[in-house]
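Hey,
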Amino acid sequence: MLNTISITSLYVLDQDAALDFYVGKLGFEVQVDQQFGPMRFLTVALPTDPGHAVLLELPAPPSVSAEVAEQVRDAVSKGAGGGHLFFTTDDAHKTHAELKERGVDVPEEPVVQPYGVDFGFRDPFGNSIRVAQMTPPPSA
């Protein structure tokens, strides 16, 4: 059966701006940056989780038709593109402060939830990002 997720795809409107954000501000590393015919195949991953890459994909042919691509670009620019990333961290407050220092717009403060401490923000294209410091489950 299935073993792992290897690539998650997010629509971005500018792959170079996406690189600046995901690599320059969030600390990802480029895994693949290749031109395949009409498309640039660009994946990044966290150095601590190289087995799970994020494809920073332009909404354009060949993945979608030109007509649909325009609709997807419009939805993405409104924050309705459906892209979501969920990260864990050992210290939500420290991570929040580090992201702000790196110039990430993080409008939410860390909040205690039943599962831990979390906060959220959006990438420059409207994709939702959540960061959580998980509370260990109670021992049995």
